[in-house]
């Protein structure tokens, strides 16, 4: 059995020197690492093996890391924390990464200590080794806890009753926090190619707000105009 602090990390990076430096540093911390040097290889590994976190370079020799991230968000059966690595440091580049589902973004050159801290922060939010497999975000009365195994949700000390679609919408918002999730991404991840109309999605979001926000003095589901939904915690 692995120690609670030991992580399985996939590094998708085509620069051997960078991959080697990451390997040396994380090996010393007792983590298990696997490597992919192309986007296609990275997708195959991520979708067939278990990883606690993925460190993903944007510039890859076959397909860009942005497409890799998008594929994983649409095809993976669980949310895998993804940290983007890139030399692109403009705001538009960062927003593009977040739009494809990245959880965090680190520009090159970077400190290995900072990369390790970001990996730790992301993986602590979702503890896949716990028997209950829960995800918690927020503090005090705004804290929301989702139990993957039992498909239950609590806000603070209050249990919430959510049907499957509302549960999945909230799960996506929690797994993506603090990133905003577009309505098109919600449709793709919940209904797939079949999709759904805007009125149906609007109705589900309204019902989710009634369950998660209405009984409480503060609201946590926020709409950002022209961007999407985000948890305000």
From TrEMBL:
What Gene Ontology biological process does one annotation of this record name? regulation of DNA-templated transcription
Q: Which residues form the OmpR/PhoB-type domain?
A: 132-233
Q: Which CDD domains match?
A: REC_OmpR, trans_reg_C
GO molecular-function terms, A-Z = phosphorelay response regulator activity; transcription cis-regulatory region binding
Which residues are modified to 4-aspartylphosphate?
57
> PANTHER family attached here?
REGULATOR OF RPOS (PTHR48111:SF22)
Q: What is the name attached to this protein's record?
A: Response regulator transcription factor
GO CC annotations, alphabetized: cytosol; protein-DNA complex
**Superkingdom assignment:** Bacteria
What taxonomic ancestry is recorded?
Bacteria, Pseudomonadati, Pseudomonadota, Gammaproteobacteria, Alteromonadales
Q: Which InterPro entries match?
A: CheY-like_superfamily, OmpR/PhoB-type_DNA-bd, Sig_transdc_resp-reg_C-effctor, Sig_transdc_resp-reg_receiver, WalR-like, WH-like_DNA-bd_sf
Q: Which residues bind DNA?
A: 132-233
Is Protein biosynthesis tagged as a keyword?
Answer: no
Instruction: Fetch the PROSITE patterns from UniProt.
Output: OMPR_PHOB, RESPONSE_REGULATORY
Domain Response regulatory: from-to ranges: 8-123
In terms of Pfam families, this protein maps to:
Response_reg, Trans_reg_C
The portions of this protein that span the membrane are none
Q: Quick check: keyword NAD in the entry?
A: no
Keyword set, alphabetical order: DNA-binding, Phosphoprotein, Transcription, Transcription regulation, Two-component regulatory system
